[in-house]
Design brief:
- The structure is a single chain.
- The chain is of the alpha+beta class and 690 residues long.
- The protein has three domains: 266 residues, Distorted Sandwich (Beta-galactosidase, Chain A, domain 5); 186 residues, TIM Barrel (Alpha-Beta Barrel); 97 residues, Immunoglobulin-like (Sandwich), CATH 2.60.40.1180.
- Helix content is 21%, strand content 30%.
- The protein is built from 15 helices and 39 strands.
- A nine-stranded antiparallel β-sheet has the order 4-5-6-7-18-14-13-10-11. It has a seven-stranded parallel β-sheet with strand order 29-27-23-22-21-31-30.
- A hairpin with a 7-residue loop joins strand 25 and strand 26.
- Helix 7 runs parallel beside helix 9.
- The longest helix has 20 residues.
- The N and C termini lie far apart (53 Å).
- The N terminus is likely disordered.
Amino acid sequence: MMNLRRFFRAALVGLLCLAPAALSAHSDLSLEKGMPSAERWAAQHFKKGVLPPFSFRLDGVSSDTFLRKWKFSVSTAPEGGKTYCWQDPSTGLRVFCKVDLFPDFNAVEWVVSFRNDGTGDSPQISDVHAADLQIRRASSSETFVLNHLNGSLGANHDFAPFYDELTPGPGLTFQPLEGRSTSGAFPYYNIIVTGKEDVGVVFSIGWSGIWKASFALEEDHADRLGVQSGLSGFDAFLHAGEEVRMPRYSLMFWQGGHGALNMTGNNKFRRFVLAHHSRMIDGRAAMYPLCGGFNWGEPAPLNEYTGMTADYGKFLIDRYADFDITPDAMWLDAGWYKRAADWRTGKNWYNTVGSWMEDPVRFPNTLREISDRAHERGMKMMVWFEPERVFKDSDIYLAHRDWLITVPGEENNFLLNLGNPEACRWLTRHIGDFLDSRGIDYYRQDFNIDPAPIWAATDEPGRKGITEIKYIEGLYAYWDGLLARFPQMLIDNCAGGGRRLDLELIGRGAPLWRTDYSYGEVNGYQNQTYGLEWFLPLHGTGVYETDRYASRSAYSSAMVMNFKLTDGRFNFFEMKRVYDEYRSLQPYYVEDYYPLTGVDDITSPGRWIAYQLHRPSDDTGCVLAFRRPESREDSCTVCLQGLTPERTYVLTDADSGAQVSLTGAQLAEGYTLRLPDPRSSLLLRFAPAK
């Protein structure tokens, strides 16, 4: 029987079309002598007469043959960074590359754009590798390893981690499915060169549509790893005055540590994300909320929150507060808007999107009535929208049919074309006015449709990929407009459950519902936390039960309490225990992370899963471990990481109160966790001995 890990690779990572990343003659990045300098690398590769770390073709001719002959200039932006420009004197086509340096993390990022400053259409632009570089190792005795994750497919293996040793051959190519950037692929790659001390670079991609990335060692150049990435299938000419951008690319260099699960680079990248690619409020990376749901789920044929009313919402807000389990924000998901509760006519939350006004029967005084009550009880208010998808006969459909795009033959689902500036401006104003007038603090955006075939069907002849580019640029403009208007606002980035978590969008919002995998299936929740923590510190999911095994499985840097506050099967003391325990652990999820139980077959119901969270500033942390329902082993030995070898630590069992004192060196050599019963959990807190 095929190994489960190999099966998932065949179905997910293996769905990726395997193709070599041909080595370029430019953009050399050497790891031969340890960690390179991002500043020095940028200075070497963005200058006159040197091929930059990107490539493309004009009318079939490679840019390597002509780009160095174009007029070259450089300018410094007021906000920092430099923009390099290459101009074709004959056609007026310009290529811009905006480059930003992050010296505090030894990182560099760039975005390539094309602008036609000529009087007619530009030549055909194709084969754009907006990242085109090669990474050299010192010798064949060192190994290239690619650390990466699955994307989201609504499965228990969402975000499962992999360590692939790269050998000469066709290599690995990754591409998301059907237009959402982390649907089936994940645009963060830790490229590790193993040696006595590991060295590497985290390569990440910021594009919320169809990116593609290839990693390959060619037979004749096994000391060099070719890395190429760009937009899948972009092949277009530009009209006079037209400009389009490519994905954002990031290189963050690191060095240190050694071993099978060396997290030196990953933890540095997590800190980089918090410092430079997270929502900043009052100069600091925002923490995302512990949310409270409004008794999610209704009897069929109602669904989501289609049975929700203003009075019921206020009652539940009071109940949370009265029992001292006050969330940071109340979470109102899909189904609050017009017609969503018309279940007698077959309407529900899904087939009524596009009418972004309340159901007047259930909310006669608008959602302001509920948000005011939340504010009175010390909570924020978060509300769900899906503005990009428009269903037939909704308000937007009836008023702005000319703004909608779809696949020919599709009769019900449409996209509001964010690539249309008028539509984008209208949406920004309309949703912004709604949030403002209703006192809504946090904005939750979903996206439950595959846009790729719609984009492709809308492209003009000879302009493949233009619709997607304009659309994604509009998406960024829309979110930026909301965030500029509401400087204290947070965006919950859902997209069908964690399907748009690229580098561009994580800087604007975080996924508080990171996957649409079976709600409340806690073994899958463990997998998703275990994997996603490798790269991204800000994310969350829902908790449905109060037992220790289930509730701890849902912990991460954010969480949604979906307890049934009116159900006799629940106990308020148990809800309060979960609430208090989570509050004490939540800050640790943005600190250093260490997986403790490997990466093989993490979906198995017969294994242990354990991970460590460590705060270097005070040297405290915790270990969470889960013995799964079919595990036959009552113990699991783990090696803690990141601790000071000579320091003594006190480990405290959160359930029994039992304590043990051991040195960091002893804990690094191996510590045995014990759970006598299947489907049980262990929470150990550790701190330096006084």
